[in-house]
Amino acid sequence: MKVLRAGALVSVLVAGLLGGTKPAKATVAVTGLVNQGGVGYPTAGSNHGWEFSPNATISVTHLGLFDYDGQGFDVSHPIGLWRTDGTLLASSVISSGTSNPLLDGFRYVSIPEVTLNAGQHYVISYYTATEPTSDYHFDKALFQADPAITYLGGRYGGGGAFQLPSYIALPTHPDRFGPNFQFVPEPATLLLLALGGLALMRQRS
Fold first, then answer.
1. According to the model, what pLDDT value does residue 135 have?
2. How many CB atoms lie within 10 A of CB 112?
3. Spatial distance between the Cα atoms of 164 and 158, rounded to a whole number of angstroms
4. Which CATH topology does 25-185 take?
């Protein structure tokens, strides 16, 4: 009886997912950011970010940048989402000041949805053209990555232009927060999660 009830519950959930009556709520990739003694001072003409791999297909909806003191940015910062071969998949600009909305320490800008495939490697990064006085990032931090992604480490690079940061961050300063993003799971991913939940309930029955 418990299995039948669980199956009925999941069937309703699956029907709702396939019906697509409501868009899924966006999830933040990295939360709970706490400095661990590594504050980065980006130099002029430098790029900073981090590499990750989705554990399931996701669609990125917003790109964000950490606002160190919550008072806005000294300068505007281009921000982008890259494949590791240097292909730019999406980009926008985080404006100077406080015009971009603040959410849990990050200011975000919306982008046209970009689908990222499970198991592929991507980089999110930002660029600073001039040396700011307070637009810092954390080089070493505690944080929580959403289960839908695997965090692979910080990236940085120079070049004097907005481009993929090619260097892997040193172990002593392993992070670059820095950028963040919001995403929604693909409907097929939600369906798999629902079916996985049904299997777990059957095992417990």
1. 87
2. 9
3. 9
4. Jelly Rolls (2.60.120)
